[in-house]
Amino acid sequence: MDDERIWGSEEGLWTGDEATYRAAIDEACLMVLPAPPYVMTGPQAIEAVAATPRWTRVDLTERQVSRPQEGLIVIAYKARADRDGMTGYEAACTTTYRMIEHGTWRVVQHQQTPPLVASL
Predict the structure, then answer these.
(1) Phi–psi pair at 42, nearest 5 degrees
(2) Looking at domain 3-113, does it have CATH number 2.60.370.10?
(3) How much is the average pLDDT of 15-19?
(4) Beta strands in the chain (DSSP E)
(5) pLDDT digits (tens, 9 = 90+) for 49-66
(6) What is d(CA 59, CA 5) in angstroms, rounded to the nearest whole number?
(7) What is residue 115's DSSP assignment?
(8) pLDDT tens digits, residue range 98-112?
(9) Is the Cβ–Cβ distance between 86 and 47 less than 8 Å?
(10) DSSP string for residues in 65-84
C-alpha cells in the first residue's frame, strides 16, 4: 500500500461511517482509546463507532510510515479533529495495518493518546 492510500484510509477511519470502519478493522484488532472502556477489541470498536457521532474534519500531521516487514505497515501521527459538539480534539496516534491478501489491508492495532498535562 502506498503512502497516499495509507493516509486516505486513515482519514476515512476518522470521518467514515460504520461500513467504512467495518471493512477496515480486523477482528483481531486491539485499540486503546481515551474513553471507557479504554481497551477494545475490533468488534467492540466497530460497535462503539456505530453509536458515536463521526468526526466531520480531521487533520493528520507529523506523519511517519514504517514498513518493518512485507505485509506490515505501522504509522504514527498527530490528529486534530472536530465534530458536532466537540472541536479541537487532539491526540498522538499509531495504527498498524496487516496485509490479508494482495491489495487487501486491515487495521490490527490503533491507539490515541491525548496531550498529557502534568500538574506542578
Answers:
(1) -55, -50
(2) no
(3) 90
(4) 25-32, 39-41, 57-69, 72-83, 86-101, 104-113
(5) 888 888 999 999 999 999
(6) 16
(7) P
(8) 999 998 999 999 999
(9) no
(10) EEEEETTEEEEEEEEEEEET
Of 97, 118, 93, the closest CA to residue 107 belongs to 97
* Distance of alpha carbon 99 from alpha carbon 73, whole angstroms: 8
38 Rama sector, left if φ>0, alpha if ψ -120 to 50, beta otherwise = left
Nearest to 79 by CA among 95, 59, 64: 59
Closest CA to 105 of 95, 113, 115: 95
> pLDDT per residue over 74-93, tens digit each?
999 999 999 988 889 999 99
Domain range list for the chain:
3-113
Q: How high is the pLDDT of residue 120?
A: 53
Cα–Cα distance between 55 and 52 in angstroms, integer?
Answer: 9
| Cell numbers at 5, concatenated | 492510500
